[in-house]
Design goal:
Layout (H helix, E strand, L loop, with lengths): L4 E4 L1 H7 L5 H7 L4 H7 L16 E5 L6 H7 L1 H7 L5 E5 L4 H4 L3 H16 L6 E6 L1 H12 L6 E5 L6 H9 L16 H10 L19 E7 L5 H8 L7 E4 L5 H13 L7 H5 L4
Parallel strand pairs: 2-3, 2-4, 4-5, 5-6, 6-7
Antiparallel strand pairs: 1-3
Length: 279
């Protein structure tokens, strides 16, 4: 089973609004990036993420949800209402891709690498992950250092409750000592990666990481059942990069968090956001 993708590009959004310029109209007659991705050779190499033109945002849902839920919940509409120039690929990344540990490989070979190669100009790559999708986005960034400019993590699932409790008892990620971690223990490897993360590190590989690390934006409901995991990451981030609301683990909460992060200037075309993209 291949990953199903729902695409919403800037030219498509302009066409829906009835304001397509001639160049965009011509571009709309070409096959969309998602269609190109389905026909592209497997195992393509994604470009390193330089300062880009129109950012590419890949959305990953949580368990039991799909790409269409981002549309229904208004995630893409919030971008278009703000006239933000962002191309979107929402992906049906179901839980079985996590269970067989193929999510990173499938996401790279079937979606991200072909989409970046198909773009007419280099662009910054951002990943938005909700719940289990937050784990998928983070695993991808860890596996492809220097490729991802930023992560937007909403109520992310990082590990089972017992592991999160272990880290909490240690005093947080900074104090936690994971010891020897098995090569196939994705949860502990991910927490180890987050432990090494510093908010001043995007674009910097001096901390012993293989390459530059992405900028991170975090959002979660304070009544969310996965809030303890988010709290661990929150302690590693400046307050301006974290949004919280009184809510649970649901779309009503996540859309409010998404609006908050967008209203803080995410994807606003500022040099500050573009500077977060590894060169």
């Amino acid at each position: 089973m291949s990953l199903r993708v729902v695409e919403d590009s800037v030219p498509q959004a302009a066409e829906k609004a009835g304001r397509v310029p001639p160049a965009a109209e011509k571009a709309n007659r070409a096959p969309p990036a998602a269609e190109k991705a389905s026909r592209a050779p497997q195992g393509g190499t994604a470009r390193q993420a330089p300062r880009g033109t129109t950012p590419l945002l890949v959305m990953l849902p949580g368990a039991g949800h799909g790409a269409d839920d981002f549309v229904r919940a208004g995630f893409i509409a919030e971008l278009r209402e703000r006239n933000l120039q962002v191309d979107v690929l929402a992906v049906d990344a179901h839980s079985h891709f996590y269970l067989d540990k193929s999510i990173v490989t499938r996401l790279h070979e079937e979606v991200i690498a072909p989409a970046l190669v198909a773009r007419p100009a280099p662009a910054s790559l951002w990943l938005l992950g909700i719940s289990l999708g937050g784990m998928g986005a983070s695993l991808y960034a860890r596996a492809h250092p220097g490729t991802v400019a930023g992560l937007v993590l909403l109520a992310p699932f990082f590990a089972v409750r017992g592991t999160i409790a272990e880290v909490t008892r240690a005093g947080g990620l900074a104090q936690w000592q994971p010891g020897a971690v098995a090569a196939d223990d994705e949860e502990r490897l991910l927490l180890q990666w987050l432990k090494a993360y510093r908010a001043d590190m995007p674009g910097d590989s001096s901390a012993g990481l293989a390459d530059a690390v992405p900028a991170i934006r975090l959002g979660y409901g304070t009544n969310d059942r996965y809030a303890p995991a988010s709290s661990l990451l929150e302690a590693r981030l400046p307050a301006a990069q974290v949004a919280t609301v009184a809510g649970g683990h649901d779309w009503d909460t996540w859309i409010v968090l998404w609006r908050q992060l967008l209203d803080r200037g995410l994807f606003a075309g500022s040099e500050k956001e573009l500077a977060a993209c590894p060169k």
